[in-house]
Write a structure and sequence with these properties.
The protein is of the alpha+beta class. The protein is 28% helix and 25% strand.
Length: 248
């Protein structure tokens, strides 16, 4: 069931989303060669607590950390570790859910570590561009898969693949709500968008095949062929006009 949010509920989510944005701005300077993914987790934990909010990923279905940190071929759900040291040229996706007064905002950014290759930068830039192209259709009256179709067009047009096994989702007082939001599909399909819907739209794209597998920790998802992955996400509210991005 899709739950429409009141203006007051959306403002609570926006308040959380401002913290997401502040943390990502700080991570741009914090992440450098020699940083561990556990360093990132601790940075996020301290920043969220300083605002009196909650990093909702910790404990969700048993997840052990405050954020997901997915490096290079890791697509999603990477677990921070003091032993995972970031090297020059790596890329790392940081996926963060902040909760305020029982309402959540979800976003993700992929960061380059030091100087990265042109191909890695192209991958990161394409994930971001596909999000903004997709939300051109995040308007009342459009169909959900209008967003999905446009993301797929952009990503595959740049020679990259779109992950099939994982999708975006609705969000609000629960981290994952209806509807699921694939990053591929036919335009004109899916539920019609309505004012008050709040959606975590998150292109997850890869250099090679979109086939994935899960590591033995039962969390970290990697590409089967070792191709690198980038992930870009924001929480978006549907209005009677332009989409309202709550995490920017």
């Amino acid at each position: 069931m899709i739950v429409l949010k009141s203006p007051e509920e959306i403002e609570l989510m926006r308040t959380a989303g401002k913290v997401n944005l502040e943390i990502f701005e700080g991570l741009k300077q914090f992440i450098r060669p020699g940083t561990t993914t556990m360093d990132i987790d601790r940075y996020v934990e301290e920043a969220v607590k300083s605002h009196g909010m909650i990093a909702s990923e910790k404990g969700y279905c048993g997840f052990p950390a405050n954020v997901c940190t997915s490096v290079n071929e890791e697509v999603v759900h990477g677990i921070p570790s003091k032993d995972r040291v970031l090297n020059e040229g790596d890329i790392v996706s940081v996926d963060l859910v902040v909760e305020y007064e029982h309402y959540m905002a979800d976003s993700c950014r992929t960061f380059g570590v030091g100087k990265i290759s042109d191909e890695a930068q192209h991958l990161i830039d394409t994930a971001e561009r596909s999000f903004f192209e997709g939300i051109r259709f995040a308007k009342e009256g459009c169909r959900l898969h209008d967003i999905s179709h446009r993301i797929q067009e952009i990503v595959e047009g740049e020679g990259f693949g779109v992950i099939r096994d994982y999708t975006g989702h609705g969000i609000g007082s629960e981290m994952h709500e209806d509807p699921p939001i694939p990053n591929y599909g036919k335009a004109g399909k899916g539920p019609r968008l309505q004012k008050g819907m709040t959606l975590a739209i998150e292109p997850m794209i890869v250099q090679g095949s979109y086939e994935t597998e899960t590591l033995l920790n039962n969390w970290t998802v990697v590409t089967e062929d070792g191709g690198w992955a980038a992930h870009y996400e924001n929480t978006v509210a549907i209005t009677d006009g332009e989409p309202d991005i709550l995490t920017i």
